[in-house]
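Standup notes, structure subgroup. Blocker cleared on the zinc ion input:
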Amino acid sequence: MQRAVREVLDLVFPRQCAACGGAVGRELCHVCWDCLAGMWPVCSPFCSMCGDPVPGPIEHHYTCSLCVGHPPGFDYARSAFMYRGAMADLIKALKYHHDLHLSRDLATMLLACVNVHYSAIDIDAVIFVPLHRRKEIKRTYNQSRLIARELARMLGKPLIPDALQRVRDTPSQTELTSVQRRKNVRGAFRVCRPQWLDGRRCLLVDDVMSTGSTVSECARELKKAGAAAVRVVTVARG
Ligand SMILES: [Zn+2]
Ligand SMILES: [Zn+2]
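Run returned:
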């Protein structure tokens, strides 16, 4: 029945690709095959800890200089695609243009990433990077919360909706160096539900990751509150 309704709705209101505006041609999706094929998946070789890809062949176990110099708060971080082309368009559409239905498309991509790099039996709970309250009220939603909610549902794992709170409204990290980014987010997060984290292995979700300073700071707080492990997964890598 639901399928029939969807097919009728597709005929009356054909779904457009959120990246190129063309016909989608894929059920339940909002990205066309061409745009999907044109995205850059994050492939090995990459840093064993933060998952940052490295150009060129590396046969041995590799840890990047950032992770060696400043070990991150998380255990591992992995991303599905590079933040370029159609992927950047999708994230901007979700983040700035209220295309909330894209959270499901992005969560599907994240699910594939989780299945490749992690094991679902090692995950007890799903958590997301919070926005500062002022920013969330202005935007009216947190895109990472929407993606994490869909991903938790797909994984069959509980989402802890208010595990973390952003207590400082930090300036944008875009123009900052890695040292400045670490400083910028230091002390920006607080754990609100330590009783729900004790001994739990968390999957921390965010939309985009660059140097990883934000997810690292969140993971550090989660671990201080008793989380047994924090694995990070992001849709895109900047
Ligand atoms: Zn397209
Ligand atoms: Zn690294």
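Discussed briefly. The domain at 40-237 is CATH 3.40.50.2020 (Rossmann fold).
Next: hand off to the docking folks.
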